[in-house]
Design brief:
Layout: H1 21-36, H2 43-50, H3 54-61, H4 64-84, H5 92-109, H6 111-118, H7 128-146, H8 154-173, H9 183-196, H10 210-225, H11 235-251
């Protein structure tokens, strides 16, 4: 799992070009954040540790809020890199479970950075890498839908998983290590997966409610791939089909 020092360029290389003032400021701020939390990152301390004058920070980042946003962006970028490195298997639910574990692991390994990334939400303000991370999660959920194993719509399942994951990490990092109950992450993972996914139902299954569950799962799967076949329908037809699919989902 990546940490704040686990990135290219932090190990001295005599052949490498020296980092720019912006990079020095960004790396210094990330290190101070990891060592002392948000309170340790001030204009005076960052400029002294990075070997630059305070006005340089304002020229590069506008203000401290801009610097912190850049640190968060860098954190999201590394988080996204780690998630992409997981790859995928033939079991989309297993991949979703692995993605959850990676998310929890990153947050616990980088508590101050994670709190900066997720503890100060502002409507309409998301780093580009955070948007890409949400898209990656949505892609995992969409694969579950296409496999006929999603109980709710892709968008709602994505929001539920994201909210649960962020909540678990923020809860755990607020507790001293010795008192931290890591089982909370595992139990919450299984609870949220049980809420949004379903076990495969054999085509001829006679389990109570199997018919309605299959109908809902197929409706969710079809709705998930509808954008890929949108050219075959007029806008009015797409809207009507989506309405029918939603009705099937809600009545299951």
């Amino acid at each position: 799992m990546a940490t704040t020092d686990d990135r290219p360029g932090t190990i001295d290389d005599p052949l490498a070009a020296p980092p720019s003032p912006r990079d020095r400021i960004l790396r210094t701020a990330a290190r101070l954040l990891a060592e002392g939390g948000r309170e340790a990152v001030s204009t005076r301390v960052v400029s002294a540790a990075a070997g630059v004058q305070p006005p340089t920070i304002y020229r590069q980042f506008g203000d401290m809020r801009g610097l912190l946003d850049a640190v968060a962006e860098d954190g999201f970028t590394r988080y996204l890199r780690d998630k992409v490195a997981l790859g995928s298997t033939e079991d989309p639910v297993a991949d979703l479970r692995a993605g959850w574990d990676a998310h929890i692991g990153f947050g616990l390994a980088n508590p101050a950075l994670y709190a900066l990334m997720n503890g100060d939400p502002r409507p309409g303000v998301l780093p580009t890498a955070a948007i890409e991370a949400r898209k990656l999660l949505e892609g995992l959920v969409r694969r579950v839908a296409e496999a006929g194993r999603l109980r709710v719509g892709v968008g709602r399942a994505t929001r539920m998983i994201h909210a649960a994951g962020v909540g678990v990490v923020l809860t755990l990092i607020a507790v001293e290590d010795a008192e931290r109950d890591l089982a909370v992450a595992t139990l919450t993972r299984e609870a949220i997966l049980a809420a949004v996914t379903t076990d495969p139902i054999p085509p001829g299954g006679t389990t109570a409610g199997a018919g309605s569950h299959r109908a809902a799962a197929h409706a969710i799967a079809l709705k998930a791939v509808l954008p890929e076949v949108s050219a075959a329908f007029t806008p009015a037809e797409r809207g009507l089909l989506a309405e029918w699919l939603d009705r099937l989902i809600l009545q299951s």
